[in-house]
Design a protein that fits this description.
Length: about 450
């Protein structure tokens, strides 16, 4: 999985108590209330601490959460529109089976005067209040007070249309709204496990086919706690919330999960091509920190290097000394990608960042007498520089203190090293190479095939 990967959590909120009896609000609907404030105006009241709202404000919204399966507990989530929402909020309520009174898709009005507005882990909350360690925080609105603040409109229940997107496309604008996330799956190592350990919040992990991960915190009190995680790939719908650790998605029940597609690893998205090859190797005489490897794509389409590797055989070694995963790279048509073992020094010397920054002693950090192989996802050697098992010193594949440049008439990789395809500069001039050490930056032109 990528390191720079986006950090997200799919959270299934646990219910702690399921046998309490509370006074319930009256079920009569309201046709007289009208919203007179926006969500943004409400949120703007909050400045660093929980406050009580004193304005005679009313907001309206559409319920998007449900505690029917026990995965939401004592909270209502609502958004400003049933489709294409722009904002959402939540209100803490001390009410069991709230889905009976506030079903998903129902329009509600909330009288804000007297309620408290707070923020916990970057999440805005409305509700009652409680004091802990001398600090006022938003807590559950008592059941006896719910009917004074939360009203169901007389409108018919509407069908909600979740905003559809991928893990990569999630942004702040979708927080606190109902979304559908496409192309995700549970990790293979979690196969056979239940959604949660009984009565415990349990982490599970989802990932997209682009290797972006979502941490799943499942409720040990939900009705589906003991159900086994599905093994397919597909879509998942829920309420997207955001805290200091990132985005989280709260599902209502298992109907929010539709994993009936092939898993990512079952899809063949790796390929081979001879039109990707090594176009330049650099070992500047004056600065080892400015070394690089340049790859070229001679195809008329962009090519992904998912599953490709670059292997280095140091000196006369016949076993791989170091290997570099190239999966992060996509090389545009008729373009290059530059790999540097010292990205900061590369930028300082050449004036731009490399396409891929890697570690020292990697295949991109050769001192000029090593051998390199470019290998496709299926283990086939597509291109090679040098002769594995032969130290490059004094040979026609030495570029120590210099550079090895692929001649412009070469348009494909070659799994057999052919000296005639290269122009090689070094500090020895042996075996037909050019005795002309190269200095950075003036003798190099990374990123441009020349």
């Amino acid at each position: 999985m990528k390191k720079n990967i986006l950090s997200m959590i799919l959270i299934l909120v646990s219910s702690c108590v399921k046998d309490q009896n509370f006074d319930t609000p009256e079920s009569t609907c309201s046709s007289e209330l009208k919203a007179n404030v926006t969500y943004a105006q409400v949120k703007s009241l909050y400045v660093d601490k929980t406050i009580q709202i004193l304005e005679d404000w009313v907001i309206e919204g559409y319920v998007i959460s449900s505690d029917k399966a026990g995965n939401f507990f004592n909270v209502l989530h609502f958004q400003d529109n049933p489709t294409n929402p722009t904002e959402g909020l939540q209100i803490e309520i001390d009410l069991r089976d709230s889905h009976v009174f506030y079903p998903v898709g129902s329009k509600i009005f909330i009288k804000l005067k007297g309620l408290y507005l707070g923020k916990s882990k970057e999440v805005f909350k409305l509700g009652g209040t409680f004091i802990a360690f001398g600090n006022i925080s938003v807590g559950r609105l008592p059941a006896t007070a719910i009917g004074n603040h939360v009203f169901v409109a007389c409108d018919e229940i509407v069908e909600l249309l979740p905003t559809s997107g991928t893990v990569d496309a999630i942004d702040d604008a979708l927080a606190n709204t109902l979304v559908t996330i496409e192309d995700v799956e549970f990790l293979e190592e979690e196969f056979g496990q239940p959604f949660a350990i009984e009565r415990e919040e349990t982490e599970r992990t989802l990932a997209s086919c682009n290797d972006n991960a979502l941490i799943v915190l499942n409720s040990g009190f939900s009705d589906f706690q003991s159900e086994i995680l599905p093994e397919g790939n597909g879509r998942i719908t829920g309420v997207l919330v955001q805290d200091k650790d990132g985005f989280k998605l709260i599902i209502r029940d298992l109907n929010d999960i539709d994993f009936n597609q092939q898993r990512c690893e079952d899809l063949i998205d790796e390929f081979t091509s001879t039109q990707i090859f090594i176009s330049e190797l650099a070992d500047p005489d004056n600065n080892i920190g400015a070394r690089f490897v340049e790859l070229y794509n001679s195809d008329t389409e962009a090519l992904s290097l998912k599953g490709w590797t670059l292997r280095r055989y140091t000196n006369n070694n016949t076993e791989v000394s170091s290997s570099l995963d190239l999966s992060e790279l996509t090389i545009e048509a008729l373009s290059t990608s530059v790999i540097s073992p010292n990205a900061e020094e590369f930028e300082r010397v050449y004036g731009f960042m490399p396409d891929l920054g890697v570690r020292t002693n990697s295949p991109a950090d050769s001192n000029g007498d090593d051998n390199l192989e470019l290998v496709d996802p299926f283990g086939t050697i597509i291109d090679i520089f040098g002769k594995v098992g032969e130290d490059g010193t004094g040979t026609n594949h030495e570029f120590e203190d210099g550079r090895a440049v692929r001649n412009l008439n070469v348009t494909e990789g070659n799994p057999m090293y052919t000296f005639g395809e290269w122009t090689i500069y070094n500090d020895s001039g042996e075996a037909g190479t050019i005795d002309q050490p190269q200095n950075a930056p003036q003798d190099f032109n990374p990123g441009i095939r020349d």
